Known about the structure:
Elements: H1 15-37, H2 41-49, H3 54-85, H4 96-130, H5 139-161, H6 186-214, H7 227-259, H8 272-306, H9 313-327, H10 342-354, H11 356-370, H12 379-401, H13 404-410, H14 414-444, H15 450-476, H16 492-521, H17 563-570, E1 583-586, H18 591-608, H19 611-629, E2 635-638, H20 640-656
Helix pairs in contact: 3-4, 3-5, 3-16, 4-6, 4-14, 5-6, 5-18, 6-7, 6-18, 7-8, 7-9, 8-9, 8-11, 8-14, 9-11, 12-14, 12-15, 14-15, 15-16, 18-19
Amino acid sequence: MFGKLTLEAVPYHEPIVMVTLAMVALGGLALIAAITYFRKWNYLWTEWLTSVDHKRIGVMYIIVALVMLLRGFADAMMMRSQLALATNGALGYLPPDHYDQIFTAHGVIMIIFMAMPFMFGLMNIILPLQIGARDVAFPFLNSLSFWLLVAAVVLMNLSLGVGEFARTGWVAYPPLSGLEFSPGVGVDYYIWALQISGIGTTLTAVNFLVTVLKMRAPTMKLMEMPIFTWTCTWANVLVVASFPILTAALGMLTLDRYLDFHFFTSDGGGNAMMYINLFWAWGHPEVYILVLPAFGIFSEVISTFTGKRLFGYKSMIYASGVIAILGFVVWLHHFFTMGSGANVNAFFGIATMVIAIPTGVKLFNWLFTIYRGRLRFTSPVLWTLGFMVTFTIGGMTGVLMAVPGADFVLHNSLFLIAHFHNTIIGGAVFGYLAGFTFWFPKVFGFKLNEKWGKASFWFWQTGFYFAFIPLYILGFLGMTRRLNHTDNPDWTPWLYVACIGAVLILFGILCQFIQVFVSVRDRKKLVDESGDPWNAHTLEWATSSPPPFYNFATTPVVHDIDAFTDMKEKGIAYDRPAKYAPIHMPRNTSAGLIIGAFATIGGFAAIWHIWWLAIVGLVGIVAAFLVRAYDNDVDYYVQPAEIERIENAHLAKLAKA
């Protein structure tokens, strides 16, 4: 009746896991008790859990990302401390199978369940506002996408306490991920978590592409869209083109494991290299999916805090497009060492190096924007300057690894790990943290504490170099990745330094949470009455902070790339219309949450081969979707009197500010 599931699936013999589970359970109970005590269940349900407001969904995405940052970074701390302790022949404190699960989970969490939700959270909040839209094109689909992510996150975390996670590394190459070498449920958790979240990701990208093409203000031309909107659009093109490849690859791996197909087993006529090609045909564009929106954030930050227009607006758009296209044709550099041949390796090596050109265009555009500008050294600017140095180092090491001969030496070493983290942390994560600080007052109506923000940056920046520069050196010294203990005394000092770096990054993360706490406590002192605390350029700053649920009382009229700056210069930024018209808005719905819950049930059942429960999950998903499809009460009109009341309140605050 319960398939593979037995009481032995709970890892009672793992004290680290059981203590973690106990802490999570206590934290969950405390949260439930607090919500009950303050009688916030109804508020939570009506204002957040069932909301289709893109801004609230964006905030929930970021909350999920921050929670998974803590989980993923806990894994990173365990890996670094294990390698610092397991030197000179010592075995450390993590058993090999537990260590393998941790480094697999770390990769999956940080890429799929931390960076992607953070990116989509910022995109959800800002993109519709930047193009003068009321909401995204398909609000219900937006809610559904978020709840599919939550379903995948739940499955990912369930693997900690019920069963195991994959021990394959985050790429899950066969035959290691096949039944013969991974007979447990770890790879199944991996497959179903990635498949469910991947469906939501693809739906989100389609939603935003339609929003940009069909929902922007009628007077806004494509070449007048803000640069953040443009980079998000290129990223969404990559999502739509690449995520179905991952879905297909994981689908074939599922058939291999569940129905004894042989897509990837050589003795059955399959080919494991096909999986590797398919995985990296998704995996390399994924790197640019993560980093392109961050490039847009840096552009917005530098332009705003220098008080200048962005230098080379059109070249930025074209450079982003070239990066997106080239990012799709360089996947094979991930396996130069697999014997593809000199001609193939040469093509992919050259194509990889060429990506440095449009990336360099962006870097010089940011430098020229800063040139002769009055740069204000706020924390978003510090994240941007830190990125420019750190990402440049990562880019140069990438060009080195694009040389097939060098890659033969460095590919399986810690040099590669350092390079990858150099680009993703120094590029994507620094960008999201800059965007978090930059747009926080727009979302919540008060600024973040600058002192703690700058402390967080310096801990992150110094911690990053302490953590990853030693890995470059260890790579040159011959240390391969995926080791859980070492016996080479030449490596030991560098492993100690890398562990210190991880601790410094931990302090940076703690400073960020302290920053949020202190800012909430002092929100009256940090309040933003104007809606435009930075004297910014784009349309999201034309609304109050936080924006009304309908975003704009009247559809903005755009005549310039920097639309809001243009309005301020013409003295029409806060003009009131003679009268307001009713605004058409979508109603809240619980359908996305319900479908996500059934997806969790179905995924869990498929992992453990509980087929009757899997059918319940599938039927529940279909039934909830049909009920939603036949529901005609899905929208309403905001009446002019309510719009006028909200707008008058905003104008009154402006008068005081």
